[in-house]
Amino acid sequence: MTAAETHQRKWWKEIVVYQVYPRSFKDSNGDGVGDINGITASLDYIKNLGAGAIWLSPVYPSPNEDNGYDISDYKDIHPEFGTMADFERFVAAAHERNIKIVMDVVVNHSSDQHFWFKEARKSKDNPYRDYYIWRDGKDGGVPNNWQSFFSGTVWQKNEATDDYYLHLFARGQPDLNWENPKVRNEVKDIIHFWAKKGVDGFRLDVINCISKVPGLPDAPIQNKDDIYHWAGEHFFNGPKFMEWMSEIKRDAFDKYDIFTVGETPDVTPEHGAMYTHSTTGVVNMLFQFELTGIDHEPGCSKWEHVPAKLSDIKHVTTKWQTLLGEHGWNSNYMENHDNARSVSRFASDSEQYREISAKLLAGWYLFLKGTPYIYQGQELGMTNVPFTSITDFQDIETMNYYNEVKELKKNIKEEDLMQQIRTKSRDNARTPMQWNDGANAGFCAEDVKPWLKVNPNYQKINAQAAVADKNSVFHFFKRALEVKQEHKVSVYGDYDILAKEHEKIFAYTRTEGNEQILVVANFSEISVDFTLNQQEISGLKGKSATLLLGNYGDAPAEVNVDGNLAVRPWEVRVSKMKN
Questions:
Q1: Which of 43, 121, 126, 273 lies at a 20 to 30 A Cα distance from 300?
Q2: Sheet-wide strand order for 163-166
Q3: Do residue 266 and residue 366 come from a single domain?
Q4: What is the DSSP string of 133-187?
Q5: Which of 270, 347, 265 minimizes the C-alpha distance to 302?
Q6: What is the domain count for the chain?
Q7: Within a domain: 425
Q8: Residues 6+ apart with CB under 8 A from 415
Q9: Cα end-to-end span (Å), the chain
Q10: Is 188 helix (H, G, I), strand (E, B) or coil?
């Protein structure tokens, strides 16, 4: 092979993926819930932005205990979202615009309302019994001490069979038993079904949880006062993960021209290099959580927010950019349906700096090595939501956390608890898309109650205003995506961090052959004099840098390597090096 695999041209490396959370995107039929026809009607907006693919969060039938990530039928469309005919029209309309479609597949667990589970829980000799994971109780209680992702135990009693089923997430999300080859065949069948519908890719929800440690031993006791304990070492990256996923890849994914991205909590770059390896890997790219989980103390709850340090952002980013090596591939994102808004977490959502710092985050992360993802509303600089009451929230993780803390920490102040939730709740990303400054932000009709309250700042932050304003966050994203298409070095070039120890500047280069771009980002509200010709940033291929993209309209078009850059608060510059 004449070049590293990461330099090999692939269509899924060159696109930018736009994530749509259907429930919150656009309501077309007046029930307060977003739907497929609403997305279809908005395709020109997504095309105008420059996205090449849409990742669709689950649209399958579901009782919605976890907003669709509890699937009761893998081969149909939830009536709230429309019909299969609506979906097929959506795919066709997207393909007419050269937009790919990525489906979200949740196969670590199903809904407890799925036919398989309804049958499995009836008796121990039911044909579907081994589709799930069952254990007898221990010492009059649950089988082990594992804690659920959503608080409490991972076990639920099944009265009909006098035993327990495993659910790593909500009790309505029983884990599938991948040890059973029939389950793996069902997964392949699901992939074939949607690929034949024209789907171009699959996002695999918590896929590295499918292989549990044999025997399901107790988790280590971290706090003796807790009843249940985190057991990630017993179900993340388990012993048969690569074997089972290789089988799915061989028998399903490889039959089509599609790409796959695995959601993989608690992975290291070494896992990433193995899972995404171009010849022996099992997915094309993965989502890791090390960067988006950086703003809390190690070993603490995600709710215990500590502002992220730039030094940590640099370390984590550079580790993943470099350690996936020549054969692996990154996916880069700052927010999604499970994470609060990035401008509120990693930059500034103040009136003064919201737009400029939202642009900084875009200019910084879109040019990293890997396929970039944009979450709906991120391109507008949408912010966290200032809900004042717990009754405004709907997310099961948020509600469970609130109730658990109220029960266990009687002395906690309500406002302190609410501040934690306003900072980290998943509902921050799930408020309706802000389309205009009219009633309900244009998400649904004026006389309709949206399923979740709209962020009250929609009158200032909305798509209609952003598209009309050439200096908006939307147009910055749009221009950034154009620059990526114009300069393929930003896709295939090697990454090198510059000025590694600088406390406010994150600078890096992307280099392929003699072509090189330079990204300089000031992650602070203070102006910084940054000297390009410092010894620590040798390796620049050129004597000057020509500006390709900047978030200040009056940035100099060209600067000399021997000179200083006066980098303003939250400023980002993407430049091309030239002699």
A1: 273
A2: 134-135, 163-166, 155-158
A3: yes
A4: -EE--BTTB-SS-BBPTTSSBSEEEETTTTEEEE-SS-TTSPBB-TTSHHHHHHH
A5: 265
A6: 3
A7: no
A8: none
A9: 31
A10: helix
pTM for the whole structure: 0.95
Residue ranges in the chain modelled with pLDDT below 70: 1-3, 299-300, 533-538
342 Cβ contact partners less than 8 Å away, ≥ 6 residues apart: 334, 335, 358, 361, 378
Question: Tokens 């003699």 — which residue?
Answer: 514
Q: How many CB atoms lie within 10 A of CB 555?
A: 18
Residue range of the domain that includes 541:
494-578
User: Does residue 417 lie within any of the structural domains?
Assistant: no
The C-alpha atoms of residue 37 and residue 200 are separated, in whole angstroms, by: 19
Q: Do 305 and 233 share a structural domain?
A: yes
Look at residue 72 in the predicted model and tell me its pLDDT. Answer: 98
Task: For residues 17 and 19, give the distance between their C-alpha atoms in angstroms, rounded to a whole number.
Answer: 6
List the one residue out of 120, 121, 174, 164 whose CA is nearest residue 143. Answer: 164
Length of the chain: 579
In a shared domain, residues 201 and 228 = yes
Q: What is the CATH number of the domain that holds 41?
A: 3.20.20.80
Residues 555 and 437 in one domain: no
| pLDDT of 535 | 39
Residue 402: helix, strand or coil by DSSP? helix
**From the centroid of its chain, how far is CA 544?**
36
The backbone region for 422, taken as left when phi is positive above 0, alpha when psi lies in -120 to 50, beta otherwise, is alpha
Query: Cβ distance 41 to 28 under 8 Å?
Result: yes
Picking from 476, 509, 543, the residue at the C-terminal end of a domain is 476
CA neighbor of 460 nearest in space, from 469, 450, 451: 469
> How far is residue 477's CA from residue 466's CA, in Å, rounded to a whole number?
11
The whole-number pLDDT of residue 430 equals 96
Q: What is the pLDDT of residues 112-132, one digit of tens each?
A: 999 999 999 999 999 999 999
222/358 same-domain check: yes
pLDDT for res 299: 66
Max CA-CA distance within the chain? 77
173 belongs to a structural domain: no
CATH number for the domain including 510? 2.60.40.1180
Together in a domain, 235 and 137 = no
User: Are 309 and 437 contained in the same domain?
Assistant: yes
Contact 46, 54 (CB under 8 A): yes
489 falls within a domain: no
**111 residue type, one letter:** S
State the Cα–Cα distance between residues 390 and 397, nearest whole angstrom.
Answer: 12
Cα–Cα dist 416/433, whole Å = 28
Q: Alpha-carbon distance 79 to 94, whole Å?
A: 21
Catalytic residue list: 205, 263
Is there a single domain that holds both residue 572 and residue 445? Answer: no
